[in-house]
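P.,

For your records, the input lines for the assembly:
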Amino acid sequence: MPKQTFYKLPQEKQERILAAAKREFTKVRFSDASINRMIRDAGIPRGSFYQYFEDKTDIFLFFLEDYKKEILGGFTVCIRAHGGELLSAIVDFLDDFIEEAFKNPREGIRVIVSEPWIFENIWADMLGGESSKEVSRVKQEGRSAVDWSKLDLLDEAEEEVFIHIFGAVIRDSLCEVFHRNEMSLEEAKNLFHERIESLRRHYEKRP
Amino acid sequence: MPKQTFYKLPQEKQERILAAAKREFTKVRFSDASINRMIRDAGIPRGSFYQYFEDKTDIFLFFLEDYKKEILGGFTVCIRAHGGELLSAIVDFLDDFIEEAFKNPREGIRVIVSEPWIFENIWADMLGGESSKEVSRVKQEGRSAVDWSKLDLLDEAEEEVFIHIFGAVIRDSLCEVFHRNEMSLEEAKNLFHERIESLRRHYEKRP
DNA sequence: AACAAAAATGACACCTTGTCATAATCTTCC
DNA sequence: GGAAGATTATGACAAGGTGTCATTTTTGTT
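Structure tokens returned:
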């Protein structure tokens, strides 16, 4: 996370830097992102960057806080719209997400799938772990929007385990869709549907 | 995959290069691996490297073929030892794998978790996709070593879906164990057990 | 205003990668 | 054997990346 100095900066400058970071990180994958380009874009000298951030990871994590709120917030809305049904909600959410990603070819999605720890970082916020107050709130909301009684889980421990399994499947599928060889929109959607349906068949309570 | 020129090289030189690649890729994560170090280690000039390989990814994929055979082969033996019970086999296999990884702190494991597409590449060999003849054979053996009748899967399609879900959970857990904050050996093992047990409870046929 | 602390700055050292002109070597054919 | 042609080897080079640090500028305090 940014150093003290960064937060003392005028709002305008902070935003300019965040915007440049966002442009860079949504354009190329993390490992290809360049500090050089970001500072050129933001119009700050090289030395200043290191006055504000430790390194690329540092500014990325800062940027990610924003991105997280956006994603988790949107998902929570979606869960509510589906009356707490997590699995129906995710299908809907991913359909939109993929469509969007196919429209703006590849942009943005790279943020999530480019490094294993990134999705995990996002996902962890639905579980626990240290996050900023704001993100914590968003996380709590998301979790409590789910109607857990519809799933066949023994106790809170397995509830947590399920969230991990669920997250793993989504991440894995996202990687597959956006990382490997080309795939049509229909194929991509279908890939998700199949997997979520399998989870539903085995994890939803039967009457 | 390597260019023609590489395969015309004397065996000894090929092996020297592969060995150097292996040392590099098992020491640092993919994005930090340096061609420079590899060629220095292997004692070949810079220009030659590009005569043999396209780039870092190219030599990595070459190295990975070897690594895959090792991993998939070992897992197949383990599946057989468990009479085809996939879930029991994976618990056993991962226990060993993690113990090994904790002994030689962090070495090797990086290969798998450092980039999302790597594990997928390995895993894909249990499903299909283009692989070398040798790997294909290993893959077929692995798949047919599993006693699928013990799992509650509708048809071959869901069998395939399950392999993905299964792989996703393992990869996700590996990332969690080796990527994020420190974790004790016991905690790590327990993390896997919990998740595999949940899968077992929901995916194994009930009497 | 004078002094100390904090922040800004860009040149620098050192790394990386991929290319390319040239040199060395191997093939082939007469 | 030797000359021509194809293939391979080689390291210097350009272009770009990162993190540091001595120096200048700004800010805050007495």
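Two observations worth noting. Residues 167 and 194 of chain B are 15 Å apart (CA to CA). Chain B touches chain A through 32 residues (CB under 8 Å).

Regards
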